[in-house]
Amino acid sequence: MTRRTAITPPRSPLRGLVVDYLTSCRARGLMPKSLKQYRYALEVGFLPWCEREGISTIAELDQRQLDRFTASLHSHRTAAGRPLSRASIHTYIRPIRLMLTWAGRQGEAVTAKPQLPRHERQLRDVLSREELDRLEAVMSSERDRLIIRIFADTGLRLEELTRLRASDIMRSRGQAYFRVLGKRDRLRDVPIGAGLLRRLDRFLATREPERSSDALFLSHRRGPFGEYEPLSSGGIYQVVKEAVERAGITKRVYPHLLRHSWMTEMVRGGMNPLVLSFIAGASPEVIANCYTHLTREDAFEATMRALAPRRDR
What's the whole-model pTM score? Predict the structure, then answer.
């Protein structure tokens, strides 16, 4: 009996460039979450559309073709039958624009880029300091209370807090910092307040000897090999979720909202945006775009202060 050998269809030049671009992203240290988003937008959304349209090279992607792709996203329906939001379309288009920019630097004949849809900037809710204190107070273990407090006082990202180790607490000239490994594996120092530092020292000093891992936060249960394993990002997410339920807060709360609340508090307190950018590991553009207008209450109070001289007339 003759065995048939499966024939793999040749890879198109465009698909090859996408594979090379994603490899470049991994080499640059792009965060896994971002890499997953880029891969989905390019390999699940963009490439299949190009293949259906008979497009196999970048040179064939003129502005008219790219506008047709963007238009197809506007007419797409989700599994629930709803159209894609402009924010969702944004997340599809941005990786394609970045890939084309990269391809142009590689000498490819890039003649156009897809247009980013205009969308209104949403006013995200924030947690007040009183609400953050409630989240901490309802938790029974010091480990969980410290997780909430670090989010509230340092604005770390979920992945950054997950990576923290006891040895990442740095001390110099009476000051203390978390040495944080952030996006694209960039290190930065995040200040730790004196009260939080004392709590961290007590927490680490009273930890059982068998919890020998250097990870700052460990699971309460032993793993399959009898050791207490570092708490995963999913475990930390569950700590926040449990705190929200116990505190009876009805807002949609998630770890990144705690970071957003901290950054908002820093801007309201008068922190220089460049200093905030340095501490938070976010670009000045992100600070300007996300935290210039803050909330409706800030806008109202600023407007009333500006109009106060007129009302006195």
Answer: 0.68
